Amino acid sequence: MTILDQPPLSLAEARRGLAELRQRAHHRLGLGLALAAAGTALLVLGHSAGIPLSIGAAAAALLAALSRDDRSRLLVRLVAQGDAWSIPEVARAARRLVSARERRRLAEGLARAAATVDPRKAEFSLVDAVRAARAHRRLNGLAVAFGDEAVAVHPFGAALCRRLLCDAALSPLYNPAIPDAELDRVIDRIERALGPWSPS
C-alpha cells in the first residue's frame, strides 16, 4: 500500500471519520481539563492524590493532540483524494494547504529531503538518501515551485506533497519496502498539479 494506492473513502466514511475524530479530541480534552482541575485542587490542599490525577490530565491532553493529528492527516488524505471537497472541512483544508505559509513549509520540507544527498545532512534524516539522491533535481525543482507564489499550485498537489513528506509508512521517500519507481510516480502527480511550471 502506498500513498497513491490507498482506496478512496466514500463521502459517508469521510464525514463519519471526521466527526468521530473531532468528538474524540473534544472528549479527551474535556477529560484532561477536568482531571487537571481536580489534581490541582487536591495538590493545593496538600493531598498526594492530586499527582496521579495530574498525570492523567497530561495523558488525556496528549491523546487529544493525537486525535487532532489523526484528523488533520485524514483531511489531507481527503484533499488528495480529490472528490470530497463538498465537505466544508475538506474545502477549508484545501485552501489552507495552498496558503503562503503552508507552501513555504512544503518548500522547506522538499528542500530538506533533497539535501539528504549531503551525508552531513542525511545523518539525522529518516529520508532514504539513495532515493533522495536519485530524485534530487526534481525535489529541488518542486521546492522552488512551492516557494514561488507566482506558480499556481492545485490543492491536490499540495496535499500529495504533504503526504509524501509526512506519511512515512506510505511514502516512498521513507519506506524502503515501497518500490523505487513509486517515488517517480508520486512526483509526476505533484508536478502535474502545478501551474505554468515544469522541472528543468
Describe the structure concisely for a colleague.
The chain is built from nine helices and no strands. With 200 residues, it is mainly alpha-helical.
Question: How would you portray this structure in words?
Answer:
With 200 residues, this protein is mostly helical. The mean pLDDT is 87. The longest helix has 34 residues, at 11-44. The chain has nine helices and no strands. Helix 2 (50-81) crosses helix 3 (88-97). The chain is elongated, with a radius of gyration of 20 Å.
Features:
elongated, 200 residues, single chain, mainly alpha
Please describe the topology of this protein.
Blueprint: H1 11-44, H2 50-81, H3 88-97, H4 100-114, H5 119-122, H6 129-134, H7 136-147, H8 155-166, H9 181-192
Helix pairs in contact: 1-2, 2-3, 2-8, 4-7, 4-8, 8-9
Radius of gyration: 20 Å
User: Strand tally, please?
Assistant: 0
Report how far the terminal alpha carbons are from each other: 31 Å
Shape: elongated
Strand proportion, as a percent range, falls in under 5%
Helix/strand/pairing class, anyone? mainly alpha
* Unreliable stretches covering 5 or more consecutive residues: none
Please, how many helices? Answer: 9
